[in-house]
Amino acid sequence: MFLQTLITGLSIGGIYALMAVGYSLVFSVLNFSNFAHGAVIMLGAYVGLALATKLSLGFGLVLAGSVAGAGIIAVLNERLAYSVLRRRKAPSLYLMISAMGCSVFLENLVYATIGSRFYAFPEFFGRQVLTLWGSSVSLLDMGAFLFALVSIFALHVFISSTRTGIAIRAGVSDMTMCSLMGVDLNRLIAIVFLLAGGFAGVAGVFLGIKYLVYPTMGWVTNKAYIAAVIGGLGSLPGALAGGLILGVVETFVSSYVSSVLRDVFSFSLLIAFLVLRPNGLMGQDTEEKV
Amino acid sequence: MTQALRVEDLHVHYGTIHAIQGVTFSVDQGEVVSIVGSNGAGKSTIMWSLTGVAERSSGTVEIFGEPLPAKPHDIVNRGVALVPERRRLFSALTVQENLIMGGYRRARDERMEADLERCFQLFPILKQRLKQRAGTLSGGEQQMLAISRALMSDPRILLLDEPSLGLAPIVVDTLMETILRIRSEGMTILLVEQNATQALEISDRGYILEVGRFLKEGPGVALAQDPEVRRAYLGG
């Protein structure tokens, strides 16, 4: 029972982390909460669903298609709704409001076109279980956890050692100076949204397989915001740690205490972190900006 | 002689503030030209508009005979590098990563390696600090890194905005020597300074800026000794 709960928690936490990474990345570069991230996750899930049911593609292709689809949607979202505000040097509050608008718009667009039905993915993994030390563990849960771990590690390597990755971190540090190094900021920001959207696509497919696909499924990104705050906004290892901690703690609360209290607990954790440790576990101290 | 930079009747507005009210100046290739003036005269605004960060309201700017592009990254690609006021390093990045960013626009080839070596020759201390975060360097070291970062882009003209700000007098002396050394290697330099005497003394020509307009111009040394300029800007 314990191990099973732990693995379930880690798999949910892995999905939270996949969502938190994209949200955190955009936050660190543009300094606003991209509340449309959940809608991108939802659309990524629909893209995956279409590929799986209409074209009967296998899991790998569904995942790749969803990553590409959600990535492109995220870039378009930035181009259409944020770039104009950015160019006018609007306060980040405006960007956040625009993001909320996008989220409502996209959800309702899905309601109006596809409808409010709940869809299930075809069973890619069956109900296979592994038996580990006497407890049965779902293969999907193990897979989701490991995949989240590997892909976030890959992103971390990309951000810390490639030229583009260094440019992204330079942009986080000082956007104007980054452009004076010869970096085309519009391109750099497009890359950031492409990455965030790609991770949203992965999260969307895993969420869809584990639960169902429906227009408001993106609301679960609330948990990703909590995970990002726990880990430290803008920190990738923080987003991973925050996601896993939240997933595991939530699962233990719902199995050992009460499933009704789960969200009460999560949001209390958010408030506790904001009050006691606003920089999160791994966030850097807010540096003084001249 | 070819003109590296030609600015004619430049106007810049910040909202309703008319910060630069029609300045005209030029920098010849291989020259060191300085613009001096008190705090708030608009010196930095000129630098930001030359790099495309501050929008020009009107006027023409030519760089090596061609019109200056609008976007900062296109301007860098024309060979303009800025060492901004207060250095503005990527403080969370290491010294090495700051230098990599400096050379971001270039191919990684032997010429870039050579430029890196040249920076280490100018500032040997940087070589020992490569893995250190830029924010942890001392003020003088940060200025060395800021200059190196700009040089790594292989510029044809170097814009230095208040390089002496916040540095100890002895460090400022070394800095001025370094500027002369970079110049002796053929670099064209536009220097903006509050520290007027030292800036004018190492400059071929200078301009005195007062709230958005040039008050005077002339050879650097002559300006540094001009009684009117001394009274207004050099403390007697």
Brief summary of the model shown:
Helix content of chain A is 72%, strand content 3%. Chain A has helices at residues 2-30, 37-53, 59-87, 92-113, 139-161, 163-173, 175-179, 185-210, 221-231, 236-257, 262-276, and strands spanning 129-132, 135-138.
Key terms:
A: 290 residues; two-stranded antiparallel ribbon; 2 strands; B: 236 residues; Rossmann fold; 6-stranded mixed β-sheet; 10 strands; 28% strand
* Uncertain residue ranges of chain A: 286-290
Give the DSSP E fraction of chain B (strand runs of 2 or more residues): 25-35%
CATH superfamily of the domain at 1-78 and 190-236 in chain B: P-loop containing nucleotide triphosphate hydrolases
Low-confidence residue ranges of chain B: none
Task: Profile the largest sheet of chain A.
Answer: 2 strands, antiparallel
Descriptive account of the structure:
The complex is a heterodimer of chains A (290) and B (236). Chain A is mostly helical and 290 residues long. Chain A has one domain. Chain A contains eleven helices and two strands. Chain A is globular. Mean pLDDT of chain A is 92; it is low at 286-290. Chain B has helices at 43-50, 72-77, 95-102, 110-122, 124-128, 139-151, 169-184, 196-201, 220-225, 227-233; strands at residues 3-14, 17-28, 32-36, 58-63, 66-67, 80-83, 157-161, 188-193, 205-210, 213-219. Chain B has a domain at 1-78 and 190-236: P-loop containing nucleotide triphosphate hydrolases (Rossmann fold, 3-Layer(aba) Sandwich), CATH 3.40.50.300. By secondary structure, chain B is α/β, with parallel strands linked by helices. In chain B, α3 runs parallel beside α6. Chain B has ten helices and ten strands. In chain B, the strands form two sheets. Chain B has a six-stranded mixed beta sheet with strand order 6-7-8-3-9-10, sandwiched between helices. A four-stranded antiparallel beta sheet of chain B has the order 2-1-4-5, covered by helices on one side. At the A-B interface, α6 and α7 of A face α2 and α3 of B.
